[in-house]
Design goal:
Number of helices: 4
Order of helices and strands: HHHEHEE
Helix content: 25-40%
Number of strands: 3
Strand order of the largest sheet: 1-2-3
């Protein structure tokens, strides 16, 4: 009887290693998946904050700075990996929500501006997991912030600033 137990124990020595390998592999993939999901959620929050900051800057900066705002440090400092300033679109809207086009510095177009919109366009999220590609455009909401236009960079003239325009 003792001989049979010793023989059976010798046959099962490698089973514990195989079981550990299977369980450890599953747990490692689960842990990596949880960390990647956390990164995705953080990036989504960053994109939302970037549209908020972009629209706020556009509401208080002069309209000629429209193309400079996406590259400002206040925006790019929180940008997720793969974000380019071209992905942040700043638009000025009229009272109906239509985009005001043309030269925004003319009095006619400048007077039409009532809202400022900032949105993320054509941003593709890059996973850290190698060999796995995931298109998140179907799952990720559109990031857009629309706020009322404020000073648009035009202030009351003062002796130190006779042009009454502030640049960002």
């Amino acid at each position: 009887m003792k001989h049979i137990l010793i023989k059976r124990r010798a046959e099962q020595k490698g089973i514990a290693l195989v079981e550990f390998t299977l369980v450890a592999t599953f747990l490692l993939f689960l842990l990596i998946g949880i960390m990647e999901m956390a990164r995705i959620m953080y990036s989504m929050q960053s994109l939302s904050e970037m549209t908020r900051r972009g629209s706020r800057l556009a509401a208080v900066c002069y309209v000629s700075d429209q193309s400079d705002i996406p590259a400002l440090n206040a925006i790019t400092a929180i940008a997720p990996k793969g974000f380019l300033p071209e992905h942040l679109i700043i638009e000025y809207l009229d009272a109906n929500g239509s985009v005001v086009s043309g030269d925004l510095t003319t009095n006619d177009n400048f007077a039409k501006i009532r809202f400022v919109s900032a949105r993320i366009d054509n941003f593709s999220y890059q996973l850290l997991i190698p060999f796995i590609t995931l298109n998140l455009t179907d799952f990720v909401p559109q990031f857009q912030t629309i706020i009322p236009a404020e000073s648009l960079g035009v202030l009351r003239p003062t002796p130190t600033n006779p042009n009454s325009i502030t640049n960002c």
